[in-house]
Structures are given as C-alpha cells and as structure tokens.
Amino acid sequence: xxxxxxxLLLVSFILSGVVYSQxxxxxxxxxxxxxxxxxxxxxxxxxxxxxEAGNPLGNxxxxxxxxxxxxxxxxPGGLTRKITASVNKIIDGVNIRLxxxxxxxxxxxxxxxxxxxxxxTTTPVTIISGIGGAFTGNGANxxxxxxxxxxxxxxxxxxxxxxxxxxxxxxxxx
Length: 174
Prior knowledge:
Blueprint: H1 2-20, E1 32-38, E2 63-73, E3 81-87, E4 94-100, E5 108-109, E6 113-114, E7 118-119, E8 125-131, E9 134-135, E10 144-152, E11 168-173
C-alpha cells in the first residue's frame, strides 16, 4: 500500500511538473526597408510628329510595364513610410508624369496609398504614402503598377532632341 501511494505520489509529481513547466523563447523581428522596381530595364517614350501643318505633336503612349515592390517592418513607435520619385533633369516644354496604382497582387499588411498622378521634377515628390508593416509580393503584377507618361506643356520651350535619357529615382523613407 505504501509502495502504491509512493508510486502515485511520484507520478502525480512528475505530471504536475509537465503541466506547469514553461520555456522562454527569444525572437528578433528586424526593422526592414526594401524597395525595387520590376522588371528591370529601360523603355522608350517618343513624341510623334504631326502629319498636317498646324497640328500639335502626338504624345507617346504611356508606359505601364513597371511595378514598385517593397517590404517594410517598422520599429516600435516608428513612422509609416513613403516612396518618392524624382528625375535627374527636366526637359524644357515637357511634363514627365507618374502615377502609382493601388496595390495589387500577392502582398499583405498595411500597404501604402497612391498620391495619384504627379509631375516629376528634380525635387522628390511623394507617390505612395502610409506604408506600414507590409509586403507587396515580388515581381511584375505585384505591388503598385506605375504609369509613366510625357506631355507637352509650353510649346515655346520645346527643342528637338533625340535619345535623351531621363533617370527616374525612387526612394523609400520614413
């Protein structure tokens, strides 16, 4: 009888240790700020000459092949992020316009909001704001589709040019 009580007490003690035991797990969630434009590569936009005297130049068809992808994990108490865009130079008489569409694809989290269509200058302008902890998915058809277009603004300032390269610089910041 004493042996049975001792065994029951020992089993009870062992089981109570299992029920009440605990483990401490340490983890790290890093602050992350990554952004890129997909697919890589350049594209060309060309105005078309009118075929009848007195008619204006024809604006190029807007390019919609580029997508902005990002991953963001904000530090505790950190600010939301934004993406800005600027160009390396202005072409007199020409507006370079950019519009980021609403986020789509396989991402999740607090995805950013488009600022609508903006005219790019050498000063960065916000194109997407309010990015929290989020990821857009990678590659084309994920993130924010970009529409890049050219229009004339002041005909008096237009000068004929060929193969003029313009670089659009995208930056993600708090």
